[in-house]
Fold Histone methylation protein DOT1-like protein.
Amino acid sequence: MNFRTENRPVEPVQRFRRPADVFEALLQSIQGGETHARPTLDLVPGSPFLPFLEIGYALRTCLEKPVKHDYLLERLRPHLNVLIGTLPACIMPMGMLPKLAPLPGFRKLEDIADDEIRDWLIQEGGLIYGEMQRFELENYFDAVKPYLAPGGLMVDLGSGLGKVVMTAALTLPFTRCIGVELLNYRHRLAQERLVRLLTLARQGLEALPEPLTLETPLQLPSGVQANGRHLLDLGARIAFLENDMFKVDVRGASLVFLYSTCFGPLMDAISDKLARELSEGALVTTTTYPIKHPAFKLLEMHAPGTLSWTSVMIYQRVGPQMSVPASESRYLHQPDPDAWDARARAELLAMIGG
């Protein structure tokens, strides 16, 4: 398969002459989420992020004091196999920690246990945001469509601003597309984007010279044939849930999408969950991190720079459902500690103008 390597030039849709114009306008409307402003996490009593904020403040306090840099690196060094990047993004100057002072009673880093720091780093990795460009998603849906029957349920775990879910609902004839996102602000932005998408869809359909009916033949952006119901029922086929991916049952899904580039430390738990819940034949796709669970068969592996900027793997659920996790720990990686230490010290020195 010859994949696209960049976004093709597009012109804003000025008039809706045919359904293809509606599709193009809708796809253009959901681009650019990677540039959204990241609000800081709420520092208010009762916030579910208070334990996360407490540890984040303790780490950031050490980052901001050069005399504490050695201690900061000492506390991070045992957890390099769950650390995304060199230093945690949340504690950096443009991170998601509020700029206000920590609440009274927040502990110092010296009073926080190693297992708490490890759990914090795993959670912090899941807060990092990224998304595929339009041409990458076009490549992705071209790659998975041969394995999918018409209909079915598509689920995006960690759906962010909803770009993949809405693209899926436009591109392939899924019966339903659902996004699951933990962070409230991202869920809220996805809901707002969906409202704009459906408003634009209604305006585009009303402007067509010939009204679209439920049975009007329709070619989807992927080239798959469908009918007018695909656009007319668009709102009923998309839903966003504000929830933890581990608390949402994906039983019945025919495709689970994971933009898992920052999920490395979570991949064991995720793959065990999917092995328990998915039916035989269901597809799972991941980025960067492969699935090494016996319940999943690799169908395709696309190296970085082909389908997407990072590697993309397509798996199929095989065998009976599993009631217990696989016992093997499969995903943790271990960077060279000396090389990491040198990078971290260089970054810390640059931050203080050294």
In short: Residues 285 and 314 are 5 Å apart (CA to CA).
